[in-house]
Amino acid sequence: MNTTQRTPASRVPRLVWYALALLAAFALGALWQYAGARRGEAALGTAQSALAEARLEATLASAVIEVQRGNYERGRQLASYFFTGLQRHLATAPPEAAALRPLYAQRDNVITVLSRNDPASAGLLSRALTDFRAAIQPGSGANVPAAPG
User: Fold this and answer.
1) pTM score, whole prediction
2) Neighbours of 47 (CB within 10 A)
3) How far does CA 130 lie from the centroid of its chain?
């Protein structure tokens, strides 16, 4: 009978192969997790941008409502919060947000008109809200005035 007995020296290559297979499985799993994390990070960035835009829209809409009620000082404060938030958003937003820059350029005029308690400021803020909605939702028809009726 010829029985081959394995010596400790002959076991070393098998252990090396097991270690390499384990290392390869770990590396594959790490790459899989990394790719998933990158997709999640991109989705998070998109969600955060959409949330920031929704908050800005709500703030500007609140300013419009306050001015329509005749509460110009509260409307001015909300408009100021809107423009401060818009400035922050533009600093971190993707290049597609460049459509919001002309709206930000109206900041001084809007704040000045509101500080004078000018009734025309309601229309100015309403137009700014319409322009903001059109910029964040292109093709939504937000810039088309509603039909009277």
Assistant:
1) 0.68
2) 10
3) 20
Q: Which amino acid is at 85?
A: G
Q: What is the pLDDT of residues 107-122, one digit of tens each?
A: 999 999 999 999 999 9
Residue 48 carries which side chain, given as an amino acid letter?
Answer: Q
Q: Where are the domains of the chain?
A: 13-136
Residues in contact with 33: Cβ distance below 8 Å, sequence separation at least 6, in sequence order: none
Predicted confidence at residue 139, as pLDDT, reads 56
Nearest-angstrom CA–CA distance, 76 and 143: 23
Residue with tokens 């009726």: 149
Chain position carrying tokens 């971190």? 92
Using CB atoms within 10 Å of the CB of residue 26, give its burial: 0 to 12 exposed, 13 to 18 middle, 19+ buried: exposed
Calpha distance 85→56 (Å, rounded): 7
| Residue 54, both tokens | 């929704």
